[in-house]
Design brief:
By secondary structure, the protein is an alpha+beta fold. It has a domain of about 160 residues: Pnp Oxidase, Chain A. Strands 1, 2, 3, 4, 5, 6, 7, 8 and 11 form a 9-stranded antiparallel beta sheet that branches. Strands 9-10 form a two-stranded antiparallel ribbon. The radius of gyration is 20 Å and the shape is globular.
Length: about 240
Amino acid sequence: MELYNDLLPDPLPAEPMALASAWLATARAARQQPNPDAMVLATTSASGQPSARIVLCKEFDVEQGRVSFVTNYDSRKGRELAENPRAALVFHWDHAHRQIRVEGLVVKAPDAESDEYFETRNWQRQIGAWASAQSQPLRSREQLNAAVRAAAERFGAPHPTPDNVNDPPTALIPRPSFWGGYYVWADAVELWIEGAARVHERARWTRSLTTAGDTPPWDDPPSLRAGPWVATRLQP
């Protein structure tokens, strides 16, 4: 008796990114959860202390084999990536019984790309990016509210409230230098499909990534040379 409602292709694809991207597109189209782009981002400090949090995937680049997200560079994850520029990602969709794991090298996105993305954000979120010293101690909520008001006044914008969330922007708000994008250049991808009796479908693809630049972390995307993907089926 077949134990699966869904199966990985046989033979496995030569590379995993196209299939993984298709899974993400399916999860978005299903509208079964508020944030299908949500992914766990795990980082480690130079001393080996791990930390994890949920961030949103901003781009799943099949051709380059990389996943991108944005954040405050001075946040805990930003500091840890400066110390140890490797990360792991997990997408999980209960309704689809599917999971994607990605591991790889992390580099900052070019400033121009971070600028372009920041311009697409709602002006209230732009103000929030300026106001938040992410991951730093906070004395009180009023301290944060004061920082939001100060950022709004700095750029001639109104104080953000629920009542004006849909109002058009009244000022051009530039991207702060401490905020922007990262690329996770995948050197390992695992695809998982839930199976009956815990007899799941799993496969892992790995490739080598070598650089022709300085020692990481890099401020701009390095000259990366990627080897061919190698696919392996895994026990559940």
